[in-house]
Amino acid sequence: MARASLSGFPEWLPDQRIVEQRVLDVIARTFELHGFASVQTRAVEPLGELLRKGETSKEVYVLSRLQADEGEAPADEVDRLGLHFDLTVPFARYVVEHAGRLTFPFKRYQIQPVWRGERPQDGRFREFWQADIDVVGDGELPFHLEVDVALVAAEALTALGALGLPPVRMLVNNRKVVEGFYAGIGLDRTEEVLRVVDKLAKIGPDDVARLLREEVGASEAQVEACLALSRLGGDVTVVDQVRDLADRYAVVTADDPARALLATGLGELSALLEAAEQRAPGVVAADLSVARGLDYYTGSVYETVLLGHENLGSICSGGRYDSLATDGKRTFPGVGISIGVSRLLSRLFSADLVRATRSVPTAVLVAVVDEDRRAASDAIAATLRSRGIPTDVAPTAAKFGKQIRYADRRGIPFVWFPGSDEPGSDQAAHGEVKDIRSGEQVAADPAMWSPPAEDLWPRVVAVVPQ
Amino acid sequence: MARASLSGFPEWLPDQRIVEQRVLDVIARTFELHGFASVQTRAVEPLGELLRKGETSKEVYVLSRLQADEGEAPADEVDRLGLHFDLTVPFARYVVEHAGRLTFPFKRYQIQPVWRGERPQDGRFREFWQADIDVVGDGELPFHLEVDVALVAAEALTALGALGLPPVRMLVNNRKVVEGFYAGIGLDRTEEVLRVVDKLAKIGPDDVARLLREEVGASEAQVEACLALSRLGGDVTVVDQVRDLADRYAVVTADDPARALLATGLGELSALLEAAEQRAPGVVAADLSVARGLDYYTGSVYETVLLGHENLGSICSGGRYDSLATDGKRTFPGVGISIGVSRLLSRLFSADLVRATRSVPTAVLVAVVDEDRRAASDAIAATLRSRGIPTDVAPTAAKFGKQIRYADRRGIPFVWFPGSDEPGSDQAAHGEVKDIRSGEQVAADPAMWSPPAEDLWPRVVAVVPQ
């Protein structure tokens, strides 16, 4: 019985999957060129691990065995298994569990699906792939890695431009800046302020102002200061604008810790923006409204929009965290960023931005003259494959017109027609190969002939708007 | 808090993951060279889909949302979601669901994790990776694809020998042969007979004989015939031995359908064995005891053992099926085979058969002279990476000895020491690169120098027993 698709669980057709494979190849290669080691974690974690940071409990899928063993005691709540909802929490657990056999700072990348039981929307799924990098230190982690992680992700996204991805803009902020600023103007419940400001893009400044008054108890001047801060952004000159704003709202008279936090944060933000301007000009910009809802960030935070597709939301986010991974004795501070691969792909497909040059890996289809001579076609195919040329053999010895249509419908560019190999003949007639796009057909030897390099494997190309 | 590993959910360390990546690369490349297109299906299926073939209900993990929306009606049993327990059932559903946008015969490969709630044992996990190929036709599927699928899998496993995998033996049988034989000796409940014979390796011939008597009601002569058949195997001469046995047990006097089924099956088995001897000499052998428990097989069936590690069980199994995928009107017969990647890897690791040459992708570590000159090291690294050389930069400007240890502990073969670049100097002193294995150190230019090809990326090599 045919079933309708499950909403929120996207599946790609073979030609779309080729796009996905190339996208993942580009991302993984960029990560590996920067020395990140691949890690995969199991899909499940104990609920106690998943819910440690609260907030997301609603989104977790919990597992149970359809028929648990008789007499099997039901698991404690914390031991019940759930599917991971991101790759950061399982990685933090992996680091703690395997710390004795890892070397720190530990740089890993991780490309896997994650699951969230939320309501599906455009670009928001219940099962989706993420591509993460994190660097985790043992006890300490130098700030410059907050620069590296952002720029590696920017480099990966920029490299995807060759496949047809529109340019991106990475928006950065620093938790120390906003927390120092908030504390400096007398708002001490900085986490709550952050959670409200994080809603700015969704609910607008008026509602943010209302929530700041109602939920955080902010004064009019404090509300005004928060909103003024959230409007700042741009290049490294933003640092002076924040200082001016802090002066205007008398942060200078605040207690030392707040001022020190703000100053440290501004130093870091400035270093990030300057390095980015050198190493990835035009890609990274400050945006003091970027808050990132998650509690655990403590320094740089990142969000990324696809230019012309800002309504898709962030396609690459992350930040610095200090106490996500800890075994009670040791703490492993880290910084990470996550590319939303499925979100990117869904837009590439829905906006028809890219396509694969064919739907199969195959470059050559070897025709079959009649079923008694299938072995001759198999031998030609084996020779081509041994030379690295992806080759298929026609499934039936149908009329050649039908065999050519088999190739054409899949986008296979070449069809090989075996010759009439006479046993014992000195000069075996290997046959002829036809480019079914141009119709050109030439005599060829499978031990010698190669397709043009651009036809060897399917490629992903940008769709040129009509 | 540190948590113990979850039994049955293996996770690899970074150097093991490199082995896994190479194994998957070799398998995927072999599949693509044969024209199989990559497909991935969602991790979940409705229970109605998963349980269609019965038998496995005990193994299914069922999902529920930790906090379902208020007022959300509980899902019907058949609509509840479970994690897939293999890749064949989801693929059958994918084919039916997307049939209108696929081209048939459709050749796909699929490499994903699957989940089964069974008790973990050596080589048997609750989460494990499979690498499958299937060819599915629309209404019909020529027999020769049963040959191709087996030989493509054999080729992939043989190619893994270059990484250190021991040789394999693929054991093949044909459902038509055994079902025709059983029916020919008067045992009509062939599925039950198959299920009993499938236990041969586990419980031995005496218990199989007892179960045949007790559960299938077989006579002594019938038991003897079944056990005699199960002992046959080897090269293509097995076909005559089966014919002799059939004569001895008077299958010749059986009804026409049974004899015809046996004859067709023997023709297919013989064709498979002969093609295998030509195209993959020494890898494939007949084994008439291979039954494969699953009901849906109708022709060739395959199992594969790792030589010297037969106790691991089958590492690559599959067969021909005729009615697994159907939408009521159309039926899509297929043939497929599945490599148990996690089972293979677990043995490669536990028996210490292979190792990666390092635990990171990095070929070069660029040292940092002092933090003020980190940008110079970053620039050298960027140049090397732009030339495709995986490069890391030391995380701190520690003493060079400590920076060399950073490389050494990860197996990074080269450390680059930046020169004292004088701004404005014509001839920039790019520095020197040291092979930390030999100690050899030479002056080098990051725009020119390359590591030896065998050091560019980590490799997987066989461990030579001491």
Automatic annotation (TrEMBL), chains A, B:
InterPro entries: aa-tRNA-synth_II, aa-tRNA-synth_II/BPL/LPL, Anticodon-bd, Anticodon-bd_dom_sf, His-tRNA-ligase, HisRS-like_core, HisRS/HisZ
Principal EC category: ligase
Residues annotated to bind L-histidine: D86, L87, T88, R116, Q130, D134, R292, Y296, Y297
UniProt keyword terms in alphabetical order: Aminoacyl-tRNA synthetase, ATP-binding, Cytoplasm, Ligase, Nucleotide-binding, Protein biosynthesis
PANTHER family: HISTIDINE--TRNA LIGASE, HISTIDYL-TRNA SYNTHETASE
Family indicated by similarity: Belongs to the class-II aminoacyl-tRNA synthetase family.
Keyword Nucleotide-binding: yes
Protein's organism: Miniimonas arenae
UniProt-listed Pfam families: HGTP_anticodon (PF03129), tRNA-synt_His (PF13393)
GO biological process: histidyl-tRNA aminoacylation
EC number(s) per entry: 6.1.1.21
Name this polypeptide is given: Histidine--tRNA ligase
Aminoacyl-transfer RNA synthetases class-II family profile domain ranges (all copies): 19-361
Reactions this protein catalyses: tRNA(His) + L-histidine + ATP = L-histidyl-tRNA(His) + AMP + diphosphate + H(+)
GO molecular function: ATP binding; histidine-tRNA ligase activity
